[in-house]
Design brief:
Two copies of one chain form a homodimer.
Chain A (H helix, E strand, L loop, with lengths): L7 E4 L7 H13 L4 E4 L6 H18 L3 E4 L2 H7 L3 E4 L6 H8 L4 E6 L2 H10 L3 E5 L15 H10 L4 E4 L17 E4 L1 H4 L4 H16 L2
Parallel strand pairs in A: 1-2, 1-8, 2-3, 3-4, 4-5, 5-6, 6-7, 7-8
Helix pairs in contact in A: 1-2, 1-8, 2-3
């Protein structure tokens, strides 16, 4: 497996945009320096998901950024994406590892130390932990405290990202916690100027973590 | 690839039943002599789809009947099912063949001769053609004439099944057409006595095709 950088992990949401506008925003985010990109589609047919994934993959390859597919190992395998991200209602990590092989990135969502350890021992390469703040991109938001986030960072030897309602103005709450990065949707996806938003988020994150 | 028999092809629909009742009905259909079984779930999470598929697979193995998974190659691969069935909005047949390998059954839906030939040349092992009659199990029903069904049977050298609102009392419309079998959902799934319904359907089908 190649190394990957989860520091500025952009998770997309195409629901408010035409395909053209969506791809334009994805490219603007890549220009702004996001380090990892996840395509997350909940409503599309398999064929439409594959189509969009192949378009986004072209952009990711152009900018040298890995593409992770939310939930669907079939879509990831169909287009040759770099990995999948699995929530607690998605395919178990161990099954995805068997289908994807050891060369692919498998991420998992964890809300507790127990879930984090389970995901790690099942073969996850990184974790997304949250929601730190309420978010508008999921119907139900279950919050995870920064204490739990810290405990998870201490419990597993893989990168842990914070997720949920994060933006450049509120990530200071993560200071001193050994996270590997932040996941954002709205802060980039819905910004008036996507490239600038990504750059500002990256600057704020690196100021926070001093690296 | 092992041989398979599409003559009495039962497509499930779990939406009106508890899991226990659903599995009971699936087993009752297997007892009644269905020759092929497709698990079709449109609303379940990936994890729930995998769970139900693994339960249904146990029953299918017990009765020696292949299990086909609707749409989702990831679910099929996760549980080790015998194949997938792909509609026009699902993964393209050629992609599924690459992911599944040559040992698995890949079926496709075709409504025109053009779609049928495309599916066959892409590697489909059988076709489902319809809807012959309006059906209650899909939101939109586009009807396919028996003339088109006949033309498809003549156009491709793979088994072609008729589908859509079929039951023991109306399949006579298929007489003289070189179909390999019939696909049914409601006629078995919603029957008061599932085993008897499957047996009666099988008897009616074999009377029609004289074999």
């Amino acid at each position: 497996m190649k190394t990957f950088d989860t520091s500025i992990y952009f998770i997309t949401d195409s629901s408010d945009f035409s395909e053209e506008e969506f791809l334009h925003r994805v490219e603007a985010a890549l220009k702004g320096g996001v380090t990892l990109l996840q395509l997350r589609e909940k409503e599309k047919s398999t064929r439409d998901y594959i189509h969009l994934a192949s378009e986004v993959l072209k952009l990711c390859r152009q900018y040298g950024i890995p593409l992770i597919i939310d939930d669907r190992t079939d879509v990831a395998l169909a287009v040759g994406a770099d990995g999948v991200h699995l929530g607690q209602s998605d395919m178990p990590v161990s099954v995805a590892r068997r289908l994807m092989g050891n060369g692919k990135i498998i991420g998992a969502t964890a809300k507790t130390v127990e879930q984090a350890v389970e995901a790690y021992t099942s073969g996850a390469n990184y974790l997304g932990v949250g929601a730190i703040y309420p978010t508008t991109t999921k119907v139900k938001t279950v919050l995870t405290s920064t204490d739990t986030l810290r405990a998870i960072c201490n419990a597993v030897p893989i990168p842990v990202n914070a997720i949920g309602g994060l933006n450049k103005d509120n990530i200071s709450v993560l200071g001193g916690i050994d996270i590997a990065g932040i996941c954002v949707v709205s802060a980039i996806m819905k910004a008036d100027d996507v490239t600038t938003a990504a750059k500002e988020l990256k600057a704020a994150y690196h100021k926070l973590t001093r690296r």
